[in-house]
Amino acid sequence: MIADDIALQSVGVEAGYGDARILHGVGIKVRRASIVTIMGPNGSGKSTLLKTVVGLVRHIGGSTVVRDRQGQIVDITRHRPYELPALGLSYVPQTANVFADMSVLENLQMGGLPLVGGPGEFQRRLAAVLELFPVVSERLSSRAGTLSGGQRQMLAMARALITDPVLLVLDEPSAGVQPDFVDAIFSKIREFSRRGLAVLIVEQKARQSLAFSDYAYVLEMGRNRFEGTGQELLHDPAIIDLYLGAGRLSAAAKAEPTDAHPTQ
Fold first, then answer.
1. Residue 256's pLDDT is what?
2. 198-202 and 215-220: which strand pairing?
């Protein structure tokens, strides 16, 4: 039985590449309008889990379901990746997340291909997205390849939001982004949640991500190791020592609290 507030639920996920099994029975939940962080050491299976969730890596075992725009539970292991935006799931990969040779506007138009309702619906969604991303609005005629790392990430998120998803999956959104843009990106993610969007994120800046996450999972060697609210993990001495860096307890304690949603 799937709870009414679940946006995504993975159970017993087994996945890998070729003969190499990376995930061993991983399970996660993402509730509506919540932010969930997946963290763990390099090679723990974080990005593989995201790629499996969005269909880029095949489920060998287990299943993943999402709640679509109509509120119906859909088993996405039975769908192709290109079908997921129409169900309400959008994905922003870590690299190669814009069409560099296309203009910013053309990138947004590509994001709008799954929309129904014709040009009028695209213009409505475009206006809503550009209101969220002024930096993108200012560069519509620019070639995407000329944007900075932070601007590209903003464009990638804007394109993902064109379809008005109910769940946004982000793989390392701060990777390759200059420091002055990282806070802006994290601020946008918090705003998405306040607007009712569920967000599933893998982030290299785990301490910052935990500070604004409602819930988090720690993977190790492709298995669930720890889980809890963002604040619980942020202040857990074992998590700090193992994954956030020894000696950072005092720094973590000073992390800004957030208006977190109910726990898992």
1. 44
2. unpaired
* Residue 200, phi then psi, degrees to nearest 5: -115, 125
Of the two residues 89 and 178, the one the predictor is more confident about is 89
Show the beta-strand stretches assigned E in the chain.
Answer: 6-17, 20-31, 35-39, 61-67, 73-75, 89-92, 167-171, 198-202, 215-220, 223-228
Residue 247: exposure state from Cβ atoms within 10 A (0-12, 13-18, ≥19):
exposed
Instruction: For residue 149, give the 3-state DSSP assignment.
Output: helix
Could you read off the pLDDT of 125-138 as tens digits, one per residue? Answer: 999 999 999 999 99
Residue in the block written with tokens 């949640």: 193
Domains of the chain: 6-94+166-253 (3.40.50.300)
d(CA 161, CA 133): 11
């304690």: which residue's tokens? 253
* 79-93, 184-198, 237-251: the lowest-pLDDT one: 237-251
CA distance 16 to 24: 9
Q: Which two tokens stand for residue 251?
A: 């720094």
Look at residue 96 in the predicted model and tell me its pLDDT.
85
Give yes or no for a contact between 188 and 134, defined as CB atoms under 8 angstroms apart: no
Distances, alpha carbon 56 to alpha carbons 50, 53, 67, 257, in Å? 9, 8, 19, 35
The Cα–Cα gap between 252 and 240 comes to 8
Residue with tokens 């379809």: 163
**The whole model's pTM is what?**
0.89
User: What was the pLDDT predicted at 264?
Assistant: 54
Which DSSP string corresponds to 183-241?
A: HHHHHHHHHHHHTT-EEEEE-S-HHHHHHH-SEEEEEETTEEEEEE-HHHHHT-HHHII
Question: Which residues are 21's β-sheet partners?
Answer: 16
Separation between Cα atoms, residue 247 and residue 240, nearest integer Å: 8
* Average pLDDT, integer, range 256-261: 44
